[in-house]
Amino acid sequence: MWVAMVLLAGLITLWFGTREAVLRHRLRRKGIRARGLVVRHDLRGAGKDGGPPSRTAVVEFVDARGSQHTLQAGSSGVKGLPVGGEVPVRYLHDAPESARIDLIGKRIMDVAFPLALGTLFTALGIWMLATGR
Q: Which residues contact 95 (CB under 8 A, 6 or more apart)?
């Protein structure tokens, strides 16, 4: 039972990381740049499992058509993203909901972290299967 849960968690996390990596690649190649404005910081995970809550930046930007959109940073942490500060944003022309904050630290956290965690869980599950644990 534990083996299946560990493998499933690893594969799902790898899927999310891969999906984000593909989207980030498309944004780098075909995305439209915009200037976003940090409007607030939201708490995430407050009170879950007794752990401390994390803060994520909420950013508003205007697309090429003049429509205003709001996005919430995918990874936690607001260091360097003060309320009222500008941040670079990229989005796909036909899908402004695909927007992401275009900072190297956010790209690493949103892609590398799930891929590394998914790889770890998947490898652990395979090891558990191979050793019969």
A: none
What stretches of the chain show up as alpha helix (H) in DSSP?
Answer: 2-30, 104-131
Closest by CA position to 70, among listed 53, 94, 91, 54: 91
Place of tokens 């994520």: 56
Residue 82 backbone phi and psi in degrees, to 5: -75, 150
Measured CA distances, 120 to 5, 7, 110 (Å): 13, 10, 16
Model confidence pLDDT, tens digit, residues 68-122: 999 988 776 667 788 899 999 999 998 999 999 988 888 888 899 999 999 999 9
The pTM of the whole model exceeds 0.85: no
- Identify the burial level of 68 via C-beta atoms within 10 angstroms of its C-beta, where 0-12 means exposed, 13-18 middle and 19 or more buried: exposed
